[in-house]
Amino acid sequence: MPRAILSVSDKTGLIPFGKSLVARGFELVSTGGTAKALADAGLPVINVSDVTGFPEMMDGRVKTLHPKIHGGILARRSHPEDLALAKQHGIGLVDLVVVNLYPFVETAAKPGIKFDDLIEQIDIGGPSLVRAASKNFRDVLIVVSPKDYDSVIAELDKPGGPTPAFRFDLARRAFEHTGAYDTAIASTLGEVKVDGDAFRRGGSSDPPAAAPAQLHLSARKLRDLRYGENPHQPAVWYALDPPAGLGAPTIHQGKELSFTNLLDLDAAARIVLEFDEPAAAVIKHTNPCGVATGVSIAEAYVRARDADSLAAFGGIIGLNRTLDEETARAIVSTFIEAVIAPGVDEAARPFLATKANLRVVVADFRALTDTRDYRSILGAMLVQERDRVTEAQAQWPADGITVVTKRQPTAEEWQAMRFAWRVMAHVKSNTVIFTDATRTLAIGAGQMSRVDAVKVAVNKAGGWKGGDAAILKGSVAASDAFFPFRDGLDAVAAAGATAVVQPGGSVKDAEVIAAADEHGLAMVFTGRRHFRH
User: Taking the model in full, what pTM does it have?
Assistant: First the structure.
């Protein structure tokens, strides 16, 4: 009689799978909660302790680590001496091992989890069972995911049984499973601080991600991409563990996502996540060409699109609300490459479907637990905490936001500066942007000087058409870093802005403040820079 060992934390599909195994003549051997679940479903199950002759002990820490278990898994059917030893010592052969490990990653993600509780989620016997079965994959099937249950049953039903290729594929993925598990443990423990007998996870006062001496990352391949930024560059899309955001998307329709689509979707999502009110962003080459808020998500989108309708053509959209029918109608009225949102209403789908190539992506970025950003450089990697504009989460004026000019901002200017500050942080440096209280008016992105950034913004606002960029009259301006000289501030005033928000901190701050007073501008310092490279 073939024997299966089952010990799973994730019990999805366990009972139907167990019933299918019993129907095919398998003897079920199990542990703890898995054995109870099988028995409660009326399935015949042998407890591991009855096989080993030893009880589970030490709060379940010791149960499967025994020669009568591992000998049955590791015995090679093609080696007579292995079979003879198994028979001599009363070791029953094992044909199938079904194991998924303690939920360490999920436990580690819980806020305030105690160190000792975290340690108890380090599985010992499970990885040993998986590795043993994977090593002996020619004779033992190893299953680590409920997603494989149906295919295992289908393979068992084949006339010749599971193929060597199928067995090897299960083993390869099982080693990936234990590798990712060990990586998660090593990475999490790398964040632990030791103070005498006390152990704690890294906190906000610690260096980025607690700066472990060894950074362990686990990434699962989602798919090959057609190419990277250019057709001659091969590219692949991976999901970091635990998967979230663009590591766990639902793609509703459209052409295959490209490398640059994904970069732009990420940029769009980062912006709209800064807002609690309905917000939309239109992205081109990772920079926003329009950002707006509105009473509804449809209003926000139309206002963001119309902030620079020329650049919005063929853009990428980010929404922080479910994509509804009204918004879908607006989106399909022009050419858009892709849209990302936290959800899509059923009523919106027929309208989106009229643009078959439009990529529609749903992803929950608020579920992200890893607050780190990773950047590759030649032969190395940089890691930093993700930049969030936390100083603008509350209404302005607020603590830490300092008025440095003679003139105080008006209530509308305060509102507009807060809006501008949240958007500006997501534009490539150097940047100066102009906005009103609810939408961008002109964006000067990625320039080598702040004067150049203002000139680009003015051109975007209409100056390049021969006009005078009148839309900027009465606007506010935001600069991602301080003005090193007054020339940038003079350019902002000449463009028509009446208030400015910037970090401050230049040796020329007094000169810049004096220039703002000369122009009658209100200016505030945030004390916090937001470079984006």
Answer: 0.78
